[in-house]
TrEMBL record:
GO terms for molecular function: peroxidase activity. PROSITE patterns: GLUTATHIONE_PEROXID_1, GLUTATHIONE_PEROXID_2, GLUTATHIONE_PEROXID_3, THIOREDOXIN_2. Keywords: Oxidoreductase, Peroxidase. Coiled coil: none annotated. It comes from the Bacteria. Belongs to the glutathione peroxidase family. This is Glutathione peroxidase. It comes from Metabacillus indicus.
Length: 160
């Protein structure tokens, strides 16, 4: 199975095929509005503005699995992201990233890009998966990683 075989639901409730992003470099991140890492939205938006014309897409997936740090509705999340961080990259409906109800996208990503010591589980909000133009998850970045620290790797993938 390829990432492009999967479907996701946008924050507005529309079904979207991941095939839409074929040929793009992707940063896929599980997000939360009430997390210590929430200010990373700003750096993610800056990367998006800088590299989107070259083929970068950042896809945000709100998740409420970590200490209920994303309790709001999709509408509230969208409003929060736009008003507080000027987020213009695509945001999606809330998902689970771990466990029996984990969205197939995150099951796929965690299998392709395991974490430290081969761990499959997403450890916290703002875990970032970098996907190359062929749809392969090539690297996982921890929540502690500032999105700006991914810039060099993103640039390399965009040039391939």
């Amino acid at each position: 199975m390829s990432i492009y075989d999967l479907h996701v639901k946008t924050i507005n409730g529309d079904e979207k095929s991941m095939d839409t992003y074929r040929g793009k470099v992707l940063v896929i991140v599980n997000t939360a509005s009430k997390c210590g890492f929430t200010p990373q939205y700003k750096a993610l938006q800056e990367l998006y503005e800088r590299y989107q014309p070259e083929g970068l897409e950042i896809l945000g997936f709100p998740c409420n699995q970590f200490m209920s740090q994303e309790p709001g509705t999709e509408e509230a999340i969208k409003s929060f992201c736009e008003l507080n961080y000027g987020v213009s990259f695509p945001m999606f409906a809330k998902v689970d990233v771990n466990g029996p109800k984990a969205h197939p996208l995150f099951t796929h990503l965690t299998n392709e890009a395991p974490g430290l010591l081969g761990s499959k589980a997403v450890k916290w909000n703002f875990t970032k998966f970098l996907v190359d133009r062929d749809g392969k998850a090539v690297e996982r970045f921890s929540p502690n990683t500032d999105p700006k620290e991914m810039e060099e790797t993103i640039q390399k993938l965009l040039q391939q």
